[in-house]
Write a structure and sequence with these properties.
The complex is a heterodimer of chains A (about 160) and B (about 60). Chain A is of the alpha/beta class and about 160 residues long. Chain A contains 7 helices and 7 strands. In chain A, strands 3-4-5-2-1-7-6 form a 7-stranded mixed β-sheet. In chain A, helix 1 crosses helix 3 and helix 6 packs antiparallel against helix 7. The longest helix of chain B is centred in the C-terminal third of the chain and has 28 residues. The chains are: A alpha/beta (about 160), B mainly alpha (about 60). At the A-B interface, helix 2, strand 6, helix 6 and helix 7 of A face helix 1, helix 2 and helix 3 of B.
């Protein structure tokens, strides 16, 4: 089971530059759908890779779905060589994305993010229009229900009563 | 929903899926704080895990 607060607090406490996207971001905006993992877009600077490595170092990160025993080193070099990582760790499931379709990387997405506060920490979350935009751009059939809900949320939030 | 309400072009496939969106749940969620929404998500994850374990035990016994 994913400890959503535990993962996000860990990232914030290690000063990782990241933007929360995906299902947890949708929850923050009001979605009623369930998600099992944390999805983040992370900055690709050398310093941020070091912070990300330190943040998850003691939670045994490993490639999700990979056969046990596959050599996987959790260090800056591994992050430098790759871009997107679907990980499982003792705090749960986390997807680290260097770039996303229709959104780009951390720097490009930053202007389309807002600050959220939860679990006694503040962190950046992709705003609702951008979340819809990147999900539309991904073009995955499995996202259609989610996009429909996010667009309905957008319309609800535009209503005067909120 | 009219095209003017969204900052995106209307997509007929997405519009088709909107008829199944439970807007009462969304309205309820929007009344909650961000903390409460996330607490509900963590509660769902705990319930999901409890059900998954119950299923595992059931399969192990049968």
């Amino acid at each position: 089971m994913t400890d959503f607060g535990g993962l996000i607090r860990r990232l914030v406490e290690h000063h990782v530059e990241f933007i929360l996207i995906g299902g947890v971001a949708a929850t923050i905006h009001g979605s009623a759908r369930f998600t099992q993992d944390v999805d983040i877009v992370y900055g690709r600077t050398a310093e941020n890779l070091r912070r990300l490595v330190a943040a998850l170092a003691d939670s045994s990160p490993y490639l999700r779905g990979a056969p046990p025993g596959l050599p996987f080193r959790w260090d800056s070099e591994t992050l430098e060589r790759g871009l997107n990582f679907a990980l499982t760790c003792t705090l749960g499931q986390i997807d680290l994305l260097g770039e996303i379709t229709g959104g780009g990387g951390y720097t490009e997405l930053l202007p389309a993010s807002v600050t959220a506060r939860a679990w006694d920490v503040e962190f950046r979350v992709l705003d609702l229009p951008a979340l819809i935009r990147v999900k539309r751009a991904a073009g995955r059939p499995k996202d259609l229900e989610s996009i429909a809900e996010l667009e309905a949320l957008y319309a609800e939030r535009k209503r005067p009563r909120h | 929903m009219s095209n003017d309400e969204l900052p995106f072009p209307l997509d007929p496939v997405i519009e088709f899926y909107k008829k199944d969106v439970d807007r009462t749940l969304l309205v309820e969620n929007l009344r909650l704080s961000v903390e409460d929404r996330l607490q509900n998500l963590q509660g769902m994850a705990e319930a999901f895990e409890a059900l998954r374990r119950a299923g595992q035990e059931l399969r192990a016994r049968s």
